[in-house]
Amino acid sequence: MSEPTADPASPASGAPFSVPITVRGYETDTQGHLNQSVYLQYGEHARWALLAAAGIRQQDLVGQGVGPVALETTIRFLRELRAGDETVMSCRFEWGTGKTFRITQILTKADGTVAAEITALGGMLDLRERRMIQDPRGFLRKLATDPDVLDR
C-alpha cells in the first residue's frame, strides 16, 4: 500500500483523513476484480494510518494494555476495482458517549467514483480485563500527540 498522507484540509473543514492506495495485481480475483477480503485490509490500513497521524502507534496501545476491537463491519461494493487502479481510502471516527464508536470509510477511484463504502462498529478492549473501556475517544486523545486528527 502507498504511504499514508493526511488530507491537506484542516480538521475544521470536515474533510476526513485519507490515504492513497494502488490496487496490486496479486490482490485481484479470477475475474480481475479486487478480492473482497482486501477491502477490509485497505480499511484497516487507513485506520492505523489515522492513528499514526495522531501520534498513536500500535505498541503505544499495547503498552497501555488496550487494543482496538471490531464488533461489526459492513462493506457496500459499488464499482469494480482492477490492478493498477489508483484509489483513496478515507477514514472518519464517529464518537458517541458510550464504549463504542462508528467508523465510516469511503474508497474512491481516481476519477471520483465511489468504489466501496465500509461502516464499522468498534471499541477499545482492556486486554487484561477483557472488557471494553469507557470513553475510547478520551482515552485515545490523551495518548495522541495530535489528538485533533481523531476528530476529522
Descriptive terms for the model:
six-stranded antiparallel sheet; 3 helices; 6 strands; 21% helix; elongated; disordered N terminus
| Order of secondary-structure elements | EHHEEEEEH
Rg computed from alpha carbons, rounded to a whole number of angstroms: 16 Å
Number of distinct helices: 3
Overall pLDDT score? 92
Beta-strand content: 25-35%
Which ranges are low-confidence, i.e. pLDDT below 50, for 5 or more consecutive residues? Answer: 2-12
Beta strands, count: 6
Classify the secondary structure makeup into a structural class. Answer: alpha+beta
Distance between the termini: 22 Å
Bulk shape: elongated
* Helix content range: 10-25%
Biggest beta sheet summary? 6 strands, antiparallel
Secondary structure elements and their pairing?
Layout: E1 17-22, H1 36-53, H2 58-63, E2 66-77, E3 86-95, E4 100-109, E5 114-126, E6 131-132, H3 136-143
Antiparallel strand pairs: 1-3, 2-5, 3-4, 4-5, 5-6
